[in-house]
Amino acid sequence: MKYRYQLIFLGENDSVRNSISDDIQRKLKDLGLVGDMIKIIDANNFGSEYLGNQPAFGIYFGDVAGDFKDLSIAEKLVKDGTMILPIFFGSFSTDIPAILSNQNGLHYSATELDRISNIVLQAFELLRETRKIFISYRRSESTSIAIQLFEALESHNFDVFLDTHSIGMGEPFQDELWHRMTDCDVIVLLNTPGFLERHWCKEELAEAGAKQIGIVQLVWPNHKIKDIDPTSYLSYPIQLIEDNFIDKLYVETDKDKPKFSSESIKKILQEVESVRARNLAARQDNLITEFRNIAAKSGRAVTVQPEKILTEDLPDGKRVIYIPTIGIPQSKNCQSAEVKKELMGYKDVSIRLIYDDLRIRDKWLKHLDWLNDNFKKDIKTLRKQEFEPWLKSR
Length: 394
Fold this sequence. Notes:
Elements: E1 5-10, H1 14-30, E2 38-41, H2 46-49, E3 56-61, H3 71-80, E4 83-88, H4 92-95, E5 106-107, H5 113-123, E6 132-136, H6 139-155, E7 159-161, H7 163-166, H8 173-182, E8 186-191, H9 199-211, E9 214-219, E10 235-239, H10 262-297, E11 303-304, E12 310-313, E13 319-324, H11 331-343, E14 349-355, H12 362-374, E15 379-383, H13 387-393
Parallel strand pairs: 1-2, 1-3, 3-4, 4-5, 6-7, 6-8, 8-9, 9-10, 13-14, 14-15
Antiparallel strand pairs: 11-12, 12-13
Helix pairs in contact: 1-5
């Protein structure tokens, strides 16, 4: 490979280090990426292997006895502007050295493994930095649970869409709902007995299928998974039981407001973290396949690279890079594309961020068109509806 991401382990905790490394490899496989995209570096090979001009992310394992290792390397990385995640096992103030005292640390437990791996992949922009979740539910049956999940997910740094909390005054309700669903990573669906009786719940399922958005489906104890056909979308069902709810209460009435137990909330958060990478991979693959098919029909030779980007060599010697972009393209996607171009050694190249514009609001599409017309000529967005005419015009 022309470049690799550098994951730097500092401090000593071999068992946790191995667990994190194995989980990252599993997630890379889920994403359809090659395992050697990430180079593992530690104190033993830092001097010979570390490259300051390639992406790096550090993990520092704290020490409960205050016997801090690899401080000189940590200091160099801090000076280089490299992000370092301190992981502590007792107390942050005693486990983590002073040089990292202003970093936001994470208390390690096995349940946090998915989250740590995702933080690494987000830092390398292999997984979206945005953590957007959409809660789909029937108000009359699960409002209290939906609000509980909204608060729990937000406390874990997710950007959560809940219709009663997330749509501003004066916004067109349904347009904004579809727009926000388009930009989410995972849908958490509260599958209560009357869910499909609501017209808009059926519509949300159809939208999820059309967009290939993964669904963490929470199926109520008095309901069965088979009541919804899972073949039209990416579904990760969890059959709930009475013990998942406080006091085994799961039917919502004017008097009773069910809540999940704290242990159930932890398991749901774990599943959401886990599904994110798999969902991103499915959506990327779908977008890549559609673009390649249209390119082939248009007589264009497009190649898929190991990094899950597409390249095309033009007759005039120039090259185009197509980067599949999930959700709504942002300015950060353009910045990331520029970094990829430089790291892969491409010079005379233009970049197109390809994306699915289905259900994105017109005002945002007009904004992206304006950016195309007024900013950098070598990085532009290309919406799905324009794939064929754009490929045929060149």
